[in-house]
What does this fold into?
Amino acid sequence: MTTFVYSPSPLAPRTHPLISKTLLKSTLATTHERFSHEMVNRLKTQCLVHLQNHSSVLGFLNFSSKPHISPHFSVTSSRESFQAIFSRVCAILSQVRWKESSELKQLSPQLKAQHVAEIVAVHKDTQSVIQFFYWISKRPFYKHNMNCFISILNRLVRDREFAPADHIRILMIKYCRNEEEIRRAVSFLDEISGKDFGFSLYSSNTLLIQLSKFEMVEAARNLYKQMLNSGIKPSLLTFNTLINILCKKGEVREAELILSQLFKYEFSPDVFTYTSLILGYCRNHKLDLAFGVFDRMVKEGCDPNSVTYSTLINGLCNVGRVEEALDMLEEMIEKGIEPTVYTYTLPITALCAIEREEEAIELVAGMKKRGCHPNVQTYTALISGLSRVGKLEVAIGLYHKMLKEGLIPNTVTYNALINELCVGGRFSTALKIFHWMEGHGSLANSQTYNEIIKGLCLGGDIEKAMILFEKMLKMGPFPTVVTYNTLINGYLTKGNVNNAARLLDLMKENGCQPDEWTYNELVSGFSKWGKLEYASFYFQEMVKCGLSPNLVSYTALIDGHSKDGKVDIALSLFERMEETGCSLNVESYNAVINGLSKENRFSEAEKICDKMAEQGLLPNVITYTTLIDGLCRNGRTQFAFKIFHDMEKRKCLPNLYTYSSLIYGLCQEGKASEAEMLLNEMERKGVDPDEVTFTSLIDGFIVQGRMDHAFLLLRRMVDMGCKPNYRTYSVLLKGLQKECLLLEEKVAVQHEAVYSCSPHEKDVNFEIVSNLLARMSEIGCEPTLDTYNVLISGLCRKGRLNEAKQLVKDMEERSFSPEREVYYSLLTAHCKSLEVDLALKIFNLIEAKGFQLHLSIYRALIYALCKAGRAEEAQDLFANMLDKQWNTDEIVWTVLVDGLLKEGELDLCMKLLHIMESRNFSPNRLTYEILGRELSRIGKSIETKPLADKLKVLKHGN
It folds into this structure.
């Protein structure tokens, strides 16, 4: 039977003063958790047999004896292989000239840390063990782990080989790569220390340096006290290390006390001591005290070095004293102290932050002349600064230059570039950089993902953003509250309030707590889309969560109720806002004034204006425009002009919306010519009219039967670069229709019979559309691709599909190719009319042209197929859809819940869900619950459905 050996434990019940008992228990639990009780018991028995066989070499010193089983140690089929290597190496080490063994050199690549830990623990010759420990550490592709150090130190202390043990103790301390490892090492070293193997000054200082590296201040304090209690006389290195770690944490007062002890031991502070104190004062933003230390060191004859100057320059830059920082840079050069790349990067970063990028570039040129080459941080600062001021091309050029010079951008560089590209509307470039990051193994963090998700949402592509979100959930980094807030805003911007609410539930489900920003987005979004009941619900939920509604949430709710005509509720919220101590601003007052004005309650609006003035808040252009708009909509344009003139006297300049409201009011009163004079005034004052302004004016002239003048205004509109929308064209179509009816009446009177332009109403409608295009050509305003796109999309929305189709033929005859939005509109319209074959034809065209297909398109087509009795085709289409990239939950939310279930198509919904699950597209538990709730809403029982079983399994699993 093969005998197993084990590595002695690095852990023992006694806790080092520097290590918490909780951490020790945690580490023990983690170490042994991987193995079953049966396996551990078997190993214990075998190890006891082994220890009995070696009892003659055991000393009586305190050494670690608790079993520690390496997580890499296999107890399955590799057992014989492990034992064979172990036994063979032990046999070779028994030879006098083992270092010359070719067999050992052949075996060495197979040796792992667990082999070495076992060998050094049990091989009979201690000197061979020591030499082997050093020899193997120099072999390629091999590295000791913590267990190796623990194993050999246990052996050396047991054999009273204290000199080599002290050296290996120092190597063990230096090996530690993180706080957890240093805590584990300290615990073990304290455990094996005794009167014959106490810490030396060298090993204490080594440990202190490592504690400083990981900023473990409390542990460093305790070690220093322990050194003094043990009679170890501190060195200057001891004091400097302790002072440095305290100053890095801003604990300068305590560092000054340590400095006073330094003098007691008759040491003099050196440049490191003074620089640490300067660092501490800079961290606390006490620059005067930092310069006091600088002056003191110079007076004491201690010359500052580049680190000293860099520390001061950094401190100055952090408090915005950039000019002084640049002066310090010049001073150090004059004194012959060569700045490092870090020294230069500090003011370069500061200059970029205050948009002085030209000076930053000059500084880079200067550093290059001195033979100091920019590093990743330097380029990152420049890229961020240049991008922020709109010089994206230069920033991208620097990015490519950086790559050419062999510098690998870090995550900060990518984030800076991606962020500014997204803000600057260069999202496709940002996305390319993001994919390049992924393809080249650069680790994107949550900020990187958030920037890309924000860019996708700003571009209206929430579906791609949700794909990235799902990737974050599955592979990391885990979504943050910023991720969820961005996506919720993305859905609300598009009016998809259902998915915004579901995302909030998913956020809670995943343990991410919503913040004020989350609820502000929801309250504002639901208010904007007229879902005031839900907006109020989220407002109340916000309060229940202990979050205080702020100005944004109150104002959004007030504005929503005001626009919905529920002014009394808006007023009560306004009063509640005051009662809760939430400061009202101009926007809050404007929201209430807007509601009152629209309801023709101007006396109350006037009182609110007076109250606003009492609070010291001056009415702004929105306040005046709100009143003007309310008066104009209630036929009181004359009073609106009084307010208009009053605002001008108060030096409050009217804006586009002020003029548009007045033009609308005048046109409603049949004063189109006066309204046109206002348009001329707008142009003189540099206020550009928009499509709303022009449409109101065009409509005003059409009402007066002045079609020619209306078309001249259309020409003027286009010449000014203002694109007509469907409302503009529909107003002109209305005028042409009226013109046609008048012509019919004249003809009918002349012939004393009923006459119409055409026997078919549909033809009449298209004739009018054709007439519109002809009249546009007559005035030199040739129909463009945009004209056709706007008209076709608008006609489809209004259900006038025949005219839209005829218009598509007409545009193709003119060699215009429909844009993506036109195809979407036509497909949706065909689906509503259940013209499934035509819808499928357009769907195939969209795919062939490479246009992006949205889930809403699939939803419309799948439902249409279902209603047309073609459920199998719907299933095939859905299955093909899954071949593309989607967010699994969003498929269920959009296609199944908001599509099929909303229309009562339960059977097809469940079949499609089964297809998803069979293809490993399983939604999360929350989405199954959403399905269950929707089924209950439509009165369907889920107890007999597969969904019920799935929900039970998921709930049980959680």
